[in-house]
Amino acid sequence: MVRAFEYPKKQQNTVKRYNDRGTYQLGPIHLVINNSPVVHVSFAPSPDDQFPAILPMIGVMASYEYPSSSIDEPFDCYLHGYVSSRLMRLARDSEKGLPVCISAPKVDGLVLSLTPNSHSYNYRSAVLQGYARPVEEVKEKVWAMEQITNKVVPDRWRNSRVPPDNVEMTSTMILRVQVETGSGKIRHGEPHDEAKDLDREDVTSSVWTGVVPVYETFGEPVPAATNKVKETPLYISSYAKEATISNREQALEAVRE
Predict the structure, then answer these.
(1) How high is the pLDDT of residue 1?
(2) Whether 35 contacts 126, CB under 8 Å
(3) pTM for the model
(4) Bridge partner list, 40
């Protein structure tokens, strides 16, 4: 049996509460990041700032050095942003790389119990810690831009006007986050009510319990006012339909223990 790659357990990433829901395997953690349209990136703006900063960004797990690696192998996290943004400037000025924390959640269901204290979500979440550095090599930068574009809609890169021109390349900055460690947390199943409530007929006969599945739905593509392509390309319409079906199946599967 082949052992799955795992992130090392350290003080900052060890799951303590409901630790049976925790995972350190690379595959499930990377999938949450790649399936989340937005990731949240936190960092310290400066020693003088009272609060940490946190930004919603587009991020993707990938390996430039080993592009054919599977999702459960070591990856970097690539982040896309404007060249003069504060995060990009701090990363550029940091010799060892800017320490960042990246998080992403996916909610699969509303878990409704007999008592408010036992309500929950079915969810998948991931947190990564690592060091962010600018991608300097042009080939890697273009490759990373392709990965990020195709995260939005698969195969979008080659079906758009590429490569980026000089203005686009200079105004865009890609950060490569070398991941030091990470963890995931997954909750699935039905409500878990306590015996003291389950034994009360007045409660069980009057309070509905169960799971409301939650999943991201993609609607019919709406052409832009300037669009001159008559038919919606199949790679767009197929993705919208298939992703919705897949998301729904994931949410329904999460109801099962």
Answers:
(1) 53
(2) no
(3) 0.93
(4) 56, 103
Domain boundaries, the chain: 19-215
Omega before 163 within 30 of 0, i.e. cis: yes
Supply the pLDDT for residue 46. Answer: 86
E strand or H helix that includes residue 152 = helix 138-152
Q: What is the pLDDT of residue 200?
A: 96
Tell me if 5 sits within 8 A of 25, measured CB to CB: yes
19-215 CATH, one of 2.30.110.10, 2.130.10.10, 1.10.10.10, 3.40.1440.60: 2.30.110.10
Residue length, the chain? 257
pLDDT score of 10: 92
Q: For residue 144, what are the contacts with CB-CB under 8 A and spacing of at least 6?
A: 60, 62, 64, 78, 80, 135, 174, 176
DSSP at 154: T
Residue 18's pLDDT is: 87
Question: Coil, helix or strand for 21?
Answer: helix
Residue 156, C-beta contacts closer than 8 angstroms, at least 6 positions apart: 149, 150, 235, 236
Angle ∠(224,226,231) on CA atoms, nearest 5: 65
Mean pLDDT for back-to-back runs of 10 residues, the chain (257 residues): 82 91 96 97 91 96 94 96 93 93 98 96 98 97 97 97 96 97 97 95 97 98 97 98 98 93
